[in-house]
Structures are given as C-alpha cells and as structure tokens.
C-alpha cells in the first residue's frame, strides 16, 4: 500500500509502488499519465482511475451488464484513445465503467 499526501497527484506516488503481476490499484486523482499506463500494463498491473471529462475515445465494445448485481452500473465499455498525442503514449485498450451516484444525482466514470 502506498499512501501519499492529498496535495500530491496519485500518478506521482504511483511510480513508487512495486509492480507485481495481478496488482490492482485505485487512484482518485489522475492526470493522463499514459507512459505510466504503458509501464503498468506491460507488467500485468491493473489500475482504476477517474479520467478527465475531456478525454477523447472510441467505444470498441459494449459489455453486457449483470442482471442482478451492480444495479448502479450504467455502462461497461472497452475504449481506445483517439487523440493522436495520447495514442503515441498509450495505444492499448481501456475499460470504462460508469455508475449512477444516487446521493449526488450524477454519473461517475
């Protein structure tokens, strides 16, 4: 576990995490650190992030949602970045999951 100060972006502290295949990391603040995604992806590490609202992507696959669980999940998609600069830094697929936040009456992805 790597806990950092709230004033430090999660991507800065993430470079200090020892990478083990199968590791799952969750980050609240993320600043499009696509080179880091390449490092983690090639090491078999999974990362969950909230991406910026202005990120451009193409939906490659719409996943079927479970019938009886995760009722607040609205979408589950495989996506690829469409911005040429971002693609040069990370060309892999990403998974985007959006859910309804009832307490805030808004979507979160």
Structural commentary:
The protein is of the alpha+beta class. It folds into two domains: 1-50, no CATH class; 53-109, no CATH class. The protein is 18% helix and 32% strand. The chain contains three helices and six strands; from the N terminus they run H-E-H-E-E-E-H-E-E. Strands 3-4-5-6 form a four-stranded antiparallel β-sheet. Strands 1-2 form a two-stranded parallel ribbon. 6% of the residues are buried.
Computed structural class: alpha+beta
Weakly predicted, low-confidence segments: none
Distance from N terminus to C terminus (CA atoms, Å) equals: 24 Å
Silhouette:
globular
Name the average pLDDT.
78
Beta-strand fraction estimate? 25-35%
Structurally, the number of domains stands at: 2
> Residue share in helices?
10-25%
Largest sheet properties: 4 strands, antiparallel
Based on DSSP secondary structure assignment, what is the total number of beta strands? 6
Q: Give the strand order of the largest sheet, numbering strands 1, 2, ... along the chain.
A: 3-4-5-6
Order of helices and strands: HEHEEEHEE
Q: What is the CA-atom radius of gyration, in angstroms?
A: 15 Å
Number of helices: 3
